[in-house]
Amino acid sequence: MAFTGKYELESQENYEEFLEEIGLLNAKTDHKVVTEVLQDGDSVTWTQTIPNFTWSNKFTVGQECELATMMGSKFKTTVTMEGGKISIQFPQYHFTAEIVEDKLIMNCITPGEKGVTFKRVSKRI
Fold it and tell me: Domain 5-124, what fold?
């Protein structure tokens, strides 16, 4: 499934609980996040924007790459894609993204018995 497009936040679940779990509750925003994805084959640029803040990562599916967390910390990982779903292991959570009925569905899941699943649904704009 091609991810290329621009998407605006439509709904989200467990947002504050997720931010609290990863120690970023002070980063909470009420702005509608805009996600822009540029995909050229296996090469992807993934950018999320709110007023006065942009977070962007570039990667090639199946190859080790260096990504940055929301707070700018860099880490190495291999991005995978299976069944049209992107999967990335961040230091504090596991991220997946897929297109379902022209909507971008993103999940961030923290590990452990009391793990939090943060779900974000964005509509194509």
Answer: Lipocalin (2.40.128)
What is the 8-class DSSP label of residue 84? T
Place of tokens 């936040």: 9
Among residues 70, 82, 76, which one has the least CA distance to residue 108?
Answer: 70
Q: Give residue-wise pLDDT tens across range 24-53.
A: 767 667 778 999 999 999 999 999 998 888
- Measure the CA–CA gap between 27 and 76, rounded to whole angstroms: 23
Rounded-to-integer distance, Cα 119 and Cα 14, Å? 7
Distance of alpha carbon 45 from the chain centroid: 12
Structural domain spans, the chain: 5-124
